[in-house]
Amino acid sequence: MTTDTYTQPIPRTKPFLQLISSTEDPALWSHPVLDLFAPPTPVMPPQVARLYLVPSTFGEEIEPDEMPIPSSATDLPDLHQWTMKFIVSILEIWAGRRQPAQLIRSCHRVIYMELLCKTGSQSEIGKIRSIHQSEPLDGICESTVTVRFGNRLRAIVIRFEGVDGRWLCTALRLL
C-alpha cells in the first residue's frame, strides 16, 4: 500500500502595507501645492540676556556717573582668542620677559597691583596645556588654564567681565 501525502497549498494573505509603485513619478510628492498644507514652522526670536553683569568694584566707592557700563558678550572681542593672548602675556610677565604695563587696560587696578608684585616670580615661561571656559552670565567669562612649569602642573583661574566695550580681568590666581 502506498501512502501519498497530500499537501494543501498555503493561502497567501494580503500584506498590511501598501507599497508605492516604482513606476509612479516621484516628482508628484514634491509638488509645491503640498507645501500649502504643511504646518507652519515657528520662527524663534533671538534670545536676549535676562541676567546682567554688575561690574566688580572691589569695595571702592565710585560716583554713579563714573560707574563702569556692562557690555554684552556679543559686543566684545572673540573670547577664546582674547583669553589666549591674555594668558600668554601673563605667563611672560610672571617669567620677567614682558612689562606688566602692557596689560594695564586689560586688568582692574587691584589685579594689576597684584600682577606687579608677582613680576619675575617664575623661573621659566609656562606651557599652556588646556583652557576651559564657561560663561555663567552674559558678559562674564570664568576660565581655568592648566599650565606646565618644568615637570610641575599648575592651574590658573581667571575671571573676565565685559565692561565699557572690552574684557576686563577681575580675578587672577595661580594655584
* Low-confidence spans: none
Q: Looking at the structure, what is the overall shape?
A: elongated
Please give the count of helices.
Answer: 2
How would you sum up the major sheet?
Answer: 4 strands, antiparallel
Number of strands: 4
Mean pLDDT: 78
Beta percentage is: 15-25%
Supply the helix-strand structural class: alpha+beta
Q: Into which percent range does the helicity of residues fall? A: 10-25%
C-alpha-based Rg, rounded: 33 Å
Order of adjacent strands in the largest pleated sheet: 1-2-3-4
N-C termini distance: 100 Å
Would you list the SSEs in sequence order as H and E?
HHEEEE
Key attributes of the depicted protein:
4 strands, 22% strand, four-stranded antiparallel beta sheet, 175 residues, alpha+beta
